[in-house]
Design goal:
The protein is an alpha+beta fold. The chain has helices at about 5-25, 25-35, 40-50, 70-80, 90-100, 105-115, 130-135, 240-275, 290-315, 325-345, 355-370, 375-385; strands at about 120-125, 155-160, 160-175, 180-185, 195-200, 205-210, 220-235, 280, 285.
Length: about 400
């Protein structure tokens, strides 16, 4: 595996880092996160217009750049460094690949170009606590998260004029602001029970949305309520939605791992800068051996996570899967780096005005949405058959 960046990849990183440094400082980040949409539309337009970021992994035939998941992960590492609030994760990592995988040719041609251009955004309307399950990151994705034939989730029924959806999804990433919703819904009752994926326009009749309070303000979430809401089926009624979501999971984990590495790396950099400036007993705090040891431990974690994320991106480009393990490593590194950032910044690290808590909340929020790390590892072990096919937390016997 060659981890060296190509000239194109290096240019993506350099240009994106420079743009985010100018347009996503502390004050700009807070203003964007506090806005109704939860992100800065002007910054999103710049990311789309100058870099083609929303369409980075969309095929050229549908208006995208045609790069692989490696370039998308590289870009998300930079947005993770800046904690940049944007629809990139919801639109380009979660929604667009599903349209590409399940949509008809006409749907792809109609939906992907505006998503790739950044003029429209999309969201996958899976309840936040069930997102890791739906993507098969932490277990099988055949549970009741999309309705399951019981009350709750989202239900679909066919009417004379098409499909109608009923139900509610909470903590949907960018669910309150996306122009297009991809809604997994349960249909068929008990006799032909199955999950299908539907398209719902943001201004559809019977759709009610509101932004929700979230631990991580840089990762905006919304409540989506569907009350006899008209919807269009994505693809055909025999599409294997659960398999498509499970196949998507490894790519999502790979991109998230890179993003978490960026968050962890920047938190560590800021901490090293601060302890080199802050003085105690007439010398920089960073010169004390105990502080050096703590930062060295974080550095090792971050570098190990970076190596795992690089391998996962390489593996994804070669038809292999390593995203879950990389994400587990990266989430732990981000939590460790952000926690030490707060501790080693001293009293200022606990204040609302400082950015240290934003890094910690991003790390903790991602672990709540996509982890925890031990469940990610357990699922990877289960797929590899290391523990009798049931994982450490399943009911199988440990293989000997």
């Amino acid at each position: 595996m060659d981890t060296r960046l190509t000239a194109e990849q290096d240019e993506i990183r350099r240009t994106l880092r420079e743009l985010l440094r100018k347009r996503c400082g502390g004050a700009e980040l807070r203003a964007a996160a506090d806005s109704p949409a939860g992100y800065d539309p002007a910054l999103w337009s710049a990311l789309a217009g100058r870099l083609g970021l929303p369409g980075l992994a969309v095929p050229e035939g549908y208006g995208g750049v045609g790069c692989s998941v490696t370039e998308l992960a590289l870009a998300c590492e930079e947005t993770g460094r800046a904690l940049a609030p944007s629809p990139l994760l919801a639109t380009s990592v979660l929604a667009a690949p599903l349209v590409l995988a399940l949509g008809t040719e006409a749907q792809r041609a109609a939906l992907l170009p505006p998503l790739a251009a950044g003029v429209r955004t999309a969201a996958l309307a899976v309840p936040g606590p069930a997102l890791a399950t739906a993507l098969a990151l932490t277990g099988g994705n055949d549970g009741p998260w999309a309705g399951g034939g019981r009350a709750g989730g989202v239900q679909a029924r066919r009417g004379g004029d098409g499909w109608r959806l009923y139900g509610q999804a909470d903590q949907v990433l960018d669910g309150h602001s996306a122009h297009l919703l991809l809604v997994p819904a349960h249909t068929g009752g008990f006799t032909r029970s199955r999950t299908l994926l539907f398209l719902v326009d943001g201004d559809a009749e019977g759709l009610a949305r509101a932004r929700q309070t979230a631990l991580d303000v840089t990762r905006p979430q919304g409540r989506v309520q569907l009350r006899d809401t008209p919807a269009r089926l994505l693809g055909t009624d025999d599409a294997d939605v659960l398999t498509a979501l499970a196949d998507l999971g490894d790519g999502v984990a790979t991109v998230l791992a890179a993003e978490a590495v960026g968050t962890a790396g920047r938190a560590l950099e800021r901490t090293v800068e601060y302890v080199g400036q802050r003085e105690q007993f007439g010398r920089p705090v960073g010169s004390f051996q105990a502080v050096k040891h703590r930062l060295a431990d974080v550095y090792v974690r971050v570098q190990a996570a970076r190596s795992a994320a690089c391998y996962a991106a390489w593996a994804a480009a070669h038809g292999r899967r390593a995203g879950r393990l990389a994400l587990a490593q990266a989430l732990e590194a981000a939590r460790s780096a952000a926690g030490e950032a707060i501790q080693l910044h001293g009293g200022i690290g606990f204040t609302w005005e400082h950015e240290a808590h934003l890094y910690f909340k991003r790390a903790a929020g991602d672990e709540l949405l996509f982890g925890p790390a031990h469940r990610l590892r357990d699922r990877a072990a289960e797929e590899a058959g290391l523990f009798g096919g049931a994982g450490l937390f399943g009911r199988g016997e440990v293989a000997v």
